[in-house]
């Protein structure tokens, strides 16, 4: 998460993905996109620049992982959503508070970020 919503943001997206990225950022209060990398993410990767990736898994894949690997699960929904129902053992770290809890995320083992539809967990990642 970007702690300051007024911070300028330079986007690196997949080809033709900049408009969608700007729209999605705007929906959560980030209106300071100053531009985007020409050629998108592919030009960044082709130039040999470093990048991280996030794996998105299905509910079925999660169920298998949950039963065999026992990953830590962080629920990034609002507290009220978490209180209503949640995955047993999940730790609630609301998306808007995630920067305050970064030390909780392990660097040496897999963990899962969970929300209702996938959008907030991808932002958290």
Characterize the structure shown.
Helix content is 31%, strand content 14%. The protein is α/β, with parallel strands linked by helices and 125 residues long. The protein folds into 2 domains: 38 residues, no CATH class; 66 residues, Rhodanese-like domain (Oxidized Rhodanese, domain 1, 3-Layer(aba) Sandwich). The strands form 2 sheets. The protein has a 3-stranded parallel sheet with strand order 4-3-5. Helix 4 links the parallel strand 3 and strand 4. The chain is globular, with a radius of gyration of 16 Å.
Strand and helix map with partners:
Elements: E1 9-11, H1 18-27, E2 33-36, H2 40-46, H3 59-68, E3 72-75, H4 79-84, E4 91-92, E5 111-114, H5 119-124
Parallel strand pairs: 1-2, 3-4, 3-5
InterPro entries: GlpE_sulfurtransferase, Rhodanese-like_dom, Rhodanese-like_dom_sf
Organism: marine sediment metagenome
Domain Rhodanese: 67-125
Label this structure with key terms:
single chain, 125 residues, alpha/beta, Oxidized Rhodanese, domain 1, 2 domains, three-stranded parallel β-sheet, two-stranded parallel sheet, 5 strands
- How many individual β-strands? 5
Question: What global shape is seen?
Answer: globular
Alpha-beta content class: alpha/beta
Amino- and carboxy-terminal Cα gap:
8 Å
On the 0 to 100 scale, the average pLDDT is: 88
Protein name: Rhodanese domain-containing protein
Pfam family, one: Rhodanese
Organism: marine sediment metagenome
InterPro entries: GlpE_sulfurtransferase, Rhodanese-like_dom, Rhodanese-like_dom_sf
